[in-house]
Amino acid sequence: MTDRILDFLRRTRPEGPCLVVDLDVVRDNYLAFERAMPDSRIFYAVKANPAPEILHLLAGLGSNFDCASVQEVDMALVAGASPDRISFGNTIKKERDIAAAFARGVRLFAVDCEAEVDKVARQAPGARVFCRILCEGEGAEWALSRKFGCDPAMAVDVLDHAHRAGLVAYGVSFHVGSQQKNPHAWDAALASAAEIFRILSDRGIELKMVNLGGGFATRYLEAIPGEGEYGQAINDAIRSHFGNRLPETIIEPGRGMVGNAGVIKSEVILISQKAEGDIRWVYLDIGKFNGLAETMDEAIRYPILSHRDGEATPCVLAGPTCDSVDVMYEKKPYPLPVNLEIGDELLIAGTGAYTTTYSSIAFNGFPPLQSYVI
């Protein structure tokens, strides 16, 4: 929550729910990552928030970009990134999309199985590929799933297959889980990566790069490590497992780059009870389908601010749509002021990442979440 955001809301009084992102915070976050991990190239995860203003700022600062689709590749190019600063980091790609990215000059692709390698070999001959491996996500709000990545032992064969198919077997990637609050979570994955490097070296294939992925946390209600703490732990683990033969490394911050730069303005549209003496239900003009999808399973608990002072009591917090799953906090009700009234504005902090991109186009007819970048 910055004075610039508060001043913008006071001056403009935007109608309806909206996200406001402060570019000064994004800039500070980028520079903090640079200081914490000076030997790693930064590939911003475009999916976190693809606002053109954010991409343009980061491109000007020298950032690279992790893209999940041809559309995101085009966004990065329009923002000023050259193709050599773009990674097609999705392991699940249509063959024609691989060809389209290759035609645009992209030469770095993620894979996690031999079938994906074959697609890249056909459509992007000579490209560099890195294989994503499965790893534990203990300590993360979301450990992620088995949808992406393969067993580390299988990655050896995947990269060997890429080499024999005429591609450049370039490296290994992993993701230690979203909103990872344990700076040491990278250690075990780096141990696996180093073993893959050693086995392939014995086969005459010299890998070059480790993609350390994302997972860097942003501040919600609980304290989190700073960029420096992450950097120290990760760099120590790299040296521990790779010794003097240090690989190239890249990081893919998304949430950690933009999460704390954004605030959503919302409005209370109803306060009610289901039975006499029951807990209050507070309904907002924004919910899971309008940008707050990450409240699913109540995984992310956003800081919520009200101008009302005084005593607070637990409330069930729900969205406006005609869908019974549109409830953000019920298993663990959220404390809100007793004197909260219909029509009051609430500010939801830490919402710069994964809000506009998760907002539906027109579910129940509601428009997508409006975004302002200042």
From TrEMBL:
Its cofactor is pyridoxal 5'-phosphate. GO terms for molecular function: ornithine decarboxylase activity. The modification N6-(pyridoxal phosphate)lysine is found at residue 47. SUPFAM superfamilies: Alanine racemase C-terminal domain-like (SSF50621), PLP-binding barrel (SSF51419). InterPro entries: Ala_racemase/Decarboxylase_C, De-COase2_N, De-COase2_pyr-phos_BS, Orn/DAP/Arg_de-COase, Orn_de-COase, PLP-binding_barrel. It holds the Pfam family Orn_Arg_deC_N. Keywords: Lyase, Pyridoxal phosphate. GO terms for cellular component: cytoplasm. Belongs to the Orn/Lys/Arg decarboxylase class-II family. This is ornithine decarboxylase. It comes from Acuticoccus mangrovi. The lineage of its organism: Bacteria, Pseudomonadati, Pseudomonadota, Alphaproteobacteria, Hyphomicrobiales.
